[in-house]
Amino acid sequence: MKTIKINSIARLLLTVLFFAAMINAKVTAQIKDDSITLKTAEKWLKNRAWSNDIKLNVHPSVNAIEFYKQYHANKAVWEKVILFIKEKNLDSLSVGKYPIDGENAYASITQGPSKDLEKAGWESHKKYIDLQYVIKGKEQIGVAAVSSATVTKPYDEAKDGAAYTAEGTYYTAEPGTFFLFFPQDAHRPNIKVAGYDIVKKLVIKIKAVN
Q: What is the DSSP track for the chain?
């Protein structure tokens, strides 16, 4: 009787594990599916389920659907990124590089002069997503679709970058709001804003999921 009871429990556990795996596979497939709607992504973004109570906002220019997909496809890494922002005193953090999760995510703090418009270049990356946040000061950042940009320097895998010319939209980056640039986003950061000669900035590189 005891053997029969143990076998029954084992079969029950296997059944539960099987259905849990099926549900997980279904959720993963939905996340990778292009059917994720803008409404779903924007609701998730607005509800701040991603935020771990950090006070920063996501800039309105950020692709909400892509953020939703990338976050859910690599949630453990994104949670470490958000925790880094939450736990570090960014205002007093020294210039330098900071590990977050090996090659999956790492941060750098810079402080220096921003650039005149003509000296700031367009760029994009394939391996990594850029989280860019101005801690002190202000700068302008241009944003354009890679698909509409003209390549001036082909993608360099070692540097994870390509250069472009583009007609984009320009936004002011300032404390309180961060930007996310995905592989399909060409961006032109570090452009000088009058009256703000020195900018302290956080850039976090987050491994992109294809």
A: -HHHHHHHHHHHHHHHHHHHHHHHHHHHHHHHSTT--HHHHHHHHHHTTTSTT-S-EE-TTS-HHHHHHHHHHTHHHHHHHHHHHHHS-TTTPPSEEEEEETBTEEEEEEEEE-B-GGG--EEE-SSEEEEEEEEES-EEEEEEEGGGSEEEEEEETTTTEEEEE---EEEEE-TTEEEEE-TTEEEEEEEEBTTB-EEEEEEEEEEPP-
pTM over 0.85: no
Encode pLDDT of 30-56 as tens digits. Answer: 444 457 999 999 999 999 999 999 999
Domain 34-207 falls in which CATH fold? Jelly Rolls (2.60.120)
What is the rounded CA–CA span in Å between residue 58 and residue 69? Answer: 15
